[in-house]
Design goal:
The chain is mainly β and about 450 residues long. It contains 1 helix and 40 strands. About 30% of the residues are buried. The N terminus is likely disordered.
């Protein structure tokens, strides 16, 4: 029975039913319209990356995206990397690497298969900068003073036409640095709406002929200016430009030549005026100071930097060893230099530590010293042997005898006699022991005699 029932269901024919009605009625339907963006805007001029803006479409339905096109001379191309199948949701885009020319832009709203195209934007002239050029060259100027008129640099396209777009950054620097100068002032700027950048207040501090400036802007070919000259400013100071002198003490001026320049405030040599510039010469040495115009020449106290010249020289001598300061002065700010004077050749002996009164046969303290000096009394570094002996013996009938180290080797110009004593006079046998003196000798050096002292 079950099998028979299944067979009847499978083999049965399909059934159909329908109803009929008659009459009349009234109905309504709603419609929707996609509206295009209005007021598509671009700048009147632009670099190759063009910014495009538009308001959002206000219709229902809201667009699912927009695509943008640009038109030049009747030829339309996709823009902002969009297409009918690749839209953007925002209301602004940047169209990159646009060739030079004049364009209008349109924006198309898209909703499913619907599209709505905006009216064209205003025209935008696209410029492609290629290089920078000096359009006002640097003029000759004075050190530290602004170059006038102000230097101007223009951004140009490949044909040399100014690119009238504001905001392009430009910098200037020294190209050929003929005098080792430093460029000061405002060295960076941006183009104005004409594509020009002006650099006011630019100056260089070192005088020289043959300077150039360089102008640059990122991605553009740089430019080099024409050559120009920077002259020294007015003289303001004396400067000793030669190396410090060093030499032995002398009664004549043989050290040098010492060169004095008159300079401006930036260290540039300044030319002496008609009549020359007088320079006063001085030294703070405690010895005898000698200046001369030539080596070993007559003593002078002033010299003249001749008209049309920037410097003059002199020679120096000094009898006192040490580090004297030479000063050059006059109508300009003074200049100084520290010199080095050393002792001359060993010439004479002198007592450093004189002998003092002492008891007979007792060590004289402090230890007696002899110094080896040059002819001007400056301590030398000699290491010669020095001998000491009694010069005047106050011992009466029984003269005193000197005991201790009588000959010593000097060190750094000083001979120290340790352990010296005198047995002294024997009182009552004709002497009172008052008035001894000692003498130091060393070869051809001039000897020296001590002050008198007593042995009791």
């Amino acid at each position: 029975m079950l099998v028979l029932l299944v067979a009847l269901v499978v083999l049965a024919a399909p059934a159909a039913a329908f109803w009929r009605s008659t009459g009349s009625g009234i109905g309504s339907a709603a419609t929707a319209t996609l509206t295009a963006p209005t007021s598509v805007t671009v700048a009147p001029t632009s670099l190759p990356n063009v910014a495009v803006n538009w308001p959002a479409s206000t219709s229902p339905p809201s667009p699912t995206g927009y695509y943008i096109t640009r038109t030049r001379a009747g030829v339309t191309a996709a823009a902002c990397a969009t297409s009918t199948t690749s839209t953007i949701a925002g209301t602004t885009c940047t169209d990159t690497s646009v060739p030079s020319g004049t364009y209008t832009y349109t924006v198309t709203a898209v909703y499913r298969s619907w599209t709505a195209v905006s009216s064209p934007s205003g025209s935008v002239v696209v410029w492609t900068p290629s290089k920078v050029a000096f359009t006002v060259q640097p003029a000759n100027a004075t050190a530290g003073v602004a170059i006038t008129p102000s230097i101007a640099v223009t951004v140009e396209d490949a044909s040399g036409t100014a690119v009238p777009v504001a905001g392009i950054a430009v910098i200037v620097s020294i190209g050929v640095n003929a005098g080792g100068g430093t460029l000061s002032g405002t060295l960076t700027g941006s183009t104005n709406s004409s594509g020009v950048t002006s650099f006011a207040g630019v100056s260089i501090n070192k005088a020289a002929s043959g300077y150039t400036l360089a102008a640059a802007s990122i991605g553009l070919t740089s430019a080099t200016s024409s050559t120009f000259i920077i002259s020294a400013a007015a003289a303001s100071r004396f400067v000793i430009t030669s190396a410090a002198v060093s030499g032995a003490a002398s009664a004549s001026a043989t050290l040098g030549a010492v060169t004095v320049h008159e300079q401006d405030a930036f260290g540039n040599p300044a030319i002496a005026p008609v009549g020359g510039t007088t320079v006063n010469l001085a030294s703070n040495s405690a010895g005898t100071r000698i200046f001369s115009a030539t080596s070993g020449g007559s003593s002078i106290t002033t010299m003249t930097i001749s008209a049309g010249s920037t410097s003059a020289s002199f020679y120096y001598g000094d009898t006192r060893a040490g580090s004297p300061t030479i000063t050059v002065s006059g109508s300009l700010t003074s200049g100084t230099q520290l010199e080095t004077i050393t002792a001359g050749t060993a010439a004479l002996l002198a007592f450093g530590q004189q002998p003092t009164n002492a008891a007979a046969s007792q060590t004289i303290t402090p230890a007696i010293t002899a110094v080896i000096e040059d002819q001007f009394g400056n301590l030398t570094t000699s290491t010669v042997a020095v001998t000491i002996a009694i010069a005047h013996n106050a011992g009466g009938l029984l003269p005193g005898t000197l005991y201790g180290t009588k000959t010593v080797q000097a060190s750094a110009g000083i001979a120290t006699f340790s352990g010296l004593s005198i047995d002294g006079a024997v009182l009552g046998l004709g002497g009172n022991g008052n008035g001894y003196t000692l003498k130091v000798t060393s070869g051809a050096l001039t000897s020296a005699t001590s002050i008198a002292f007593n042995i009791t």
